[in-house]
Structure formats: C-alpha cells, structure tokens
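Contributing: when you submit paired examples, paste them exactly as shown. First protein:
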Amino acid sequence: MVTHRHMWKKNPGVRQAAFLLLSFLLLLSAAGRPDSAGAAFIDTSKDRWGLLGGYGQSFPGWGQTTERVQTIDLVPRYNHLIFDDIGSGWYRGFHSIMLELPVHLVLSPEVSSMIGLNFLATYTFTAGQELRPYLFGGGGPVYSFADVPGMGDEVNGNYQFGIGLEQETTRSHKLLLELRYHHISNGGSKEPNAPLNSCKLLVGITF
C-alpha cells in the first residue's frame, strides 16, 4: 500500500520545497499591517475571475508513479484578496486565496476525464509594475472517471504548488503563465494506490 507518507519519504525534495513554500506564504501573510486586514475577508471589490488552460503529464519513476498520464486542463478560478500591500522592497505584495474547479481531459492511457476542487493560498509580488510573479500552494478532492492502472479509487485527493507570472494588459485583464507540481492519490484508502506526480503548464487570463 502506497500512502502520502511513503510518497513524501521517497521524495525529500518535494517535501522540502512544499514546506518552504507554505512557510514563506505564512510569513508573508503574518507581515501584513493590521490596518490593511480590516474587512479584507468580506471586501470583494478587488476580487478577480480567471480562466486557464494547458497541458499536464505524469512521469513514471517520479516517486511511486507508474503510469504516464497526459491531460488537457481547463481551470476556472476565483481569486479573493485577503491582505493587500504587505511588506516592502522586493517582497512587497498581497496575499489572496483561490478557488478552482479544474476539468482534466485525459488523453492517455485512455480518453476520459477528471474533475476537482482546489483551495490555494497565493502570494503575489508587486514590486514590478508590468510583470508580477506569484507563488501558490494547496489542494482538494479529485474525482476520476478514467481507468488509470494503479489508481484503486475514483475519489482521490490532490495537492499542488507552483509559480506563476502575470502581465497586465488592461485595467481589467491580466495574462497568466503558470508551472505546477501536481500530486493525485487516494491517500491509502484503497489498494492499489499508485499516485500521479505530474507537471502542468498553464496559460490564462483574468477578468
């Protein structure tokens, strides 16, 4: 039986990267000024919708992954601002949370689909005026219609983290480019439990 715990033991680099990313997001969030936090959770004036699309692929031998699964991804997103104007200098930015409803069209080993629900924490660096990098991480449930060898359950969980870059085109639209690490497994609830460790490249737009 392969569990998340075994996967993390087999992938110390992934574990360290995830720990550093989440620690960094928490530290930056804690650095927000108290006056900037007021009513941030209920103020939706700076919230944004987005739509991303792209390609993903799992890699056999990466952790406990045994199958090469290729997907075309469509990701509707809602981004809610939590803390604005955090920090100063190069790490000046804002903290937000994102809700995503991804649809993954599986191209191989068979044509099928997976759907999910993601809750992601995000930090966007605003020192640059036109190009703004951001970091994000989180996860949620995934339901798989695909018959992927090694995946013993239709109901799974996922966690992911990545980096992105946004470019302002107009006051109401921004172009997005993202690279993600994406993990799917059933957490050992059923056997077999061969996870999917994938990379995803996405492009999108906010509105």
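Second protein:
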Amino acid sequence: MTEPLSPRLVVGMTGATGAIYGIRLLQALRVSGFESHLIVSKWGARTLKHETSYTLEQVQAMATHCYQPGDQGAAVSSGSFLTSGMVVAPCSMRTLAAIADGHGDHLVHRAADVILKECRKLVLLVREAPLHEIHLENMLKLARMGVVIFPPVPAFYNRPQSLDEIVDHTVMRVLDQFGIHTALAPRWDGEMTAPLPAAPLTRP
C-alpha cells in the first residue's frame, strides 16, 4: 500500500502582463492543501521584475516545487506525474500559440502538452488586447480540445475597492475550475446592493 498523493496543480507564469495573478494563485494554493509546481518562463521572470516588487526567488519560494524553464526532464514533463491540471497565469500569446500547435520550446509548453494528452484540465489566463484573428483561432482550437480560456476580465458586481480585490476575484474563479473553493472574494448571491455615490467628473 502507498500513501495517497497530495493534490497537485502545475502553475506556469509567462511573459504577458499580469504577473500578480500567478503570484496570488500561488499564495492561495499554499493555504488550500494543494501542492503547487511552478514554472516561470524567461520572459515571465522579466515581466515579474517590471510589474511587482517580488523577486523571482521570492515567488519560487511560494511554490511547493519549482522548475527551470529549460528543464525538459522535470517531473511535470511526464504524464506519469499525477496532477489535477495546470494553470498558465498569465498566458502570453506566444505560449497560447505554442500550446495550440504542439510546440515544446520550454517546460511551460511541454507541461501544458502533457496536460492535454492526459486529458486533464488546462486553464489559460490569456492576456492581450485587442485580439486579432490568429489569437482568436488559437483560442478556439484549444477550446474545442477542452481547454478553459479564461481571460482575467474583472467583475464589478462585487464593488471592488482595490486592485487586490479585483485580482482575488479572478483567482477565486480560476480555482473553482479545479474544485478548489475559497472565500477570496464575495460571491454573487442574487441580492442587489445599494448603488455607490457617483464620483464627480473632472476635467483633465
């Protein structure tokens, strides 16, 4: 008899804007009982430096395990390594295209390819605007394969008062995709709240 495995989630962070989504996801997983297996691409590390006050080493320390993007022999590159799936947060259009076309340029791409071939859940927080036809075709191709295309579009029915609240709501909804239900943000209960007073318009 063997000990039951802890639930695992692979987390990829690539070079699109929105590094904070990956960071907050790791923080939420840390208290959820899930193992997090982190891969930060070269450009993901660059974006992290531009957008946040966290170092790469600090973000890697948030994960249960972390891997170098060039390590194609890592555990997450094999289908025999059991996981509940993978989130790429944020997901660049280059990564989207590589996954859609089956390219394995680095470990984020390879790990996503493993998730697809093993029929596990793959969630992509794709970041770009506006979207052109190639972006849309790649998203449609993957959606038809069962991939969850999850642009981090903010919700406003919960009246967010800070950027943290906007990020937390998206992270909560992403974790819902894997049956990890948290209370990071208020959930819609069908009750309308009183409107907030409108801010006065000012001239630039």
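If you have annotations for the second protein, write them as plain sentences, like these:
The first strand starts at residue 8 and ends at 13.
The chain has a mean pLDDT of 92.
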